[in-house]
Amino acid sequence: MGHPEFLGMSSGGDIGIETAKSLPGCKSVLCLQHVKTVSDARGREQSRSQINDCRSEFSDHRIRLIDLPWIEPVIVTATKANKKFMKRSELFFSAVQVPIDFIMLIMAAITAYLVRDVPQIIALKPRLYDFPFETYLIVAMLIAPVFIIIYALEGLYDIRVTRKFWREAVNIFLSTSIGIVIIIVAIFLKREWFSSRFVILVAWAASVFYVLIARYLVQLIQKWLLRNKGIGVHRVLLIGKNRKMNYIAELIKNRKNLGYKVIDQIDTAHLKVIQKIRADKGIDEVILCEPSVTDDEQEKLIDYCAINNVAFKFIPTTLQTSNYQIGVLDGEPLIEVMNTPLDGWGRIIKRVYDVLVSLFGIIITSPIMLITAVLIKLDSPGPIIYKNERVGDNGRKFYVYKFRYMKWDNCITNENPNIQSALDLEKKLIEKQSIRQGPLYKIKDDPRKTRVGRIIEKLSIDELPQFFNVFFGTMSMVGPRPHQEREVSKYMDYHRRLLTIKPGVTGMAQVSGRSDLDFEDEYRLDLFYIENWSLWLDIQICLKTVGVLFNGRRN
């Protein structure tokens, strides 16, 4: 949510609903306006029940349980650098775990093969047939990636979390068992492939053992680097000077293995103060527990943290509805407001999806693009592809590729020698004929279009070259619209959350109303997507886009 509502728990009475409604981007108030704040246990339980009902109505309220004393530490770099929340040490150790697990699985397979030649084993279990080692090793190397995928799906490559070893051991045991069950089912269906149950059982036990030992050693290295070299420490800003926060500050100071370092403790949430601390010392996380901080200050702080890749957590003195993770820090409940699941493996999965879909799109639409290019060239002078500068993730500028549907003299691009007159004409048209409100514009009955341009723009054929933007990594298949710098300059501060992920060829706004939505409505839809991304959501939006294209654009 852009501006989630904070619900007090300390006194009775209605929440300030009208105040919350007036905040731009506030959606949660629609379902929580009847929640009362009560101090007794029964009342709190009733409030929780109402909020759970709201979560079932609004799917953007995700809760995942974590154990914060064991959060994965991250690397310390130059304190004044604007570093992303996912840091190098987290990415490094997560990446290292994949090949190490692969090697351990291969070692387990080799162990299972060699064990059956031990005389004592042969005496108990005679070898019924010979299986060439070279063929066996090839099969093992083909099967090992299946286990790696299962481990990834079970969260065993979670970049951010320093797992408790016993909990990780349970997950490895279960994940490896799932892989073995898959192999057993496959062999049952095709017995000619392989039929040594002994080798399978030994490989299963050896896989669990070897993977656990390797991961334990990796964790020992991580903890040693954390305690002795300071590598992987999170720089934490504590907001609040009270008994709870003083206890947490002391706890972090005395327990270095938690992976935190308190860089300051303040009693205000004013952004100017926080910005100065971040510039001087660097901030990776903010922990808030200060009842005097107003709802408006908390909302601005959440947006500031999301925009600047700073994790926001708080010890609740209020209830809040948003995307968050719940954990416990030495008995104290700790809540982290989540910006987007598009971090770590989520970002990797989305990129793989983008490459595959864009490549498929390029191949499928290449005949249409070829015909369109010929028609544009015959229709009017000028280049076929129109490159328009837009603002992407983290404010980076890039060129969006589109088929030119305007007369070349009217195109807004540095390649146009008459760009100033083109800008003047566009400014006049925006003032007279724009049908959109907010930072964006949409010109009705645009006189600058060519004959071919009117057709390809209406059918969205002009956007097909953006498959190349996606393939080269400047855009994503799904995301917020890519906006021009002059449009971004008109953003309110909270609108800049749209710049925290790559812009998309299509998105929630496009399938909901194409160019007909007001900017605030478009912002809320895009923010919902940012906070609730999933691969399935991307697939749904892409499929819906195909249907929307047949309706054409309405200007």
Would you mind describing this structure in some detail?
The protein is α/β, with parallel strands linked by helices. It folds into four domains: 1-61, no CATH class; 88-229, no CATH class; 232-339, 3-Layer(aba) Sandwich (Rossmann fold); 345-549, no CATH class. It has 19 helices and 13 strands. A seven-stranded mixed beta sheet has the order 2-8-9-6-5-3-4, with helices on both faces. Strands 1-7 form a two-stranded antiparallel sheet. The longest helix is centred in the middle third of the chain and has 35 residues, at 345-379. It starts with 5 loop residues before the first strand and ends in a 6-residue tail after the last helix.
Main β-sheet, spatial strand arrangement = 2-8-9-6-5-3-4
Inertia-based shape: flat
Mean pLDDT, nearest integer? 77
Backbone CA Rg: 28 Å
How far apart, in Å, are the first and last alpha carbons?
A: 30 Å
Strand residue content: 5-15%
- What is the number of E strands? 13
Structural class: alpha/beta
Largest sheet: 7 strands, mixed
Number of domains: 4
Give the low-confidence spans: 1-86
Share of residues in helices: 40-55%
The helix tally amounts to 19
